[in-house]
Amino acid sequence: MDILEIIRNRHSYRGKYKSDKVPREDLISILKAGLEAPSGCNMQTTSLIAVDDRAVLERLHSVIEPPVGETAPAIICVLTKRIFAYRDRCFAVQDYSAAIENMLLAITALGYESCWYEGHITDEDKIGDKMA
To answer: In whole angstroms, what is the distance from residue 95 CA to residue 16 CA?
Structure first.
């Protein structure tokens, strides 16, 4: 697929995922795509954790409410660090958004389905803290 076709084919998938394990090489390729995203003032505020261990996935899913992606064979947790670049400006949100978009496109290019879940994880429910 060329990049424009990948962009057109990318969508949020909210169905049941196949139980097939994602090969480690593919997870590494997806993570690398995320880390190769642009970063405001090159501050590199984004870190990534890929989780494919069934027991850890179950623990993560036990705190996500409402439940989402519970059949996914892998999750990538995106962490950000608020680093001020200049003039008291921080680009952490833009940095992790660019990283996620790169990963979503890589996931599509590799033939997988995915969905970016954030809203109810980072809002006032503090689900992200429970996941940590």
So the answer is: 29
72 phi and psi, to 5 degrees?
Answer: -65, 135
Q: How far lies 104's CA from each of 7, 32, 47, 131, in Å?
A: 9, 12, 16, 21
Domain count, the chain: 1
Structural domain for 60, as ranges = 3-131
Cα–Cα distances in Å, from 128 out to 5, 12, 17, 19, 57?
33, 20, 22, 24, 14
CATH number for 68: 3.40.109.10
User: What does the DSSP assignment read for 62-108?
Assistant: TT-SS--STT-S-EEEEEE---EEETTEE-HHHHHHHHHHHHHHHHH
Each residue's pLDDT tens digit, 43-58:
999 999 999 999 999 9
- Encode pLDDT of 3-28 as tens digits: 999 999 999 999 999 999 999 999 99
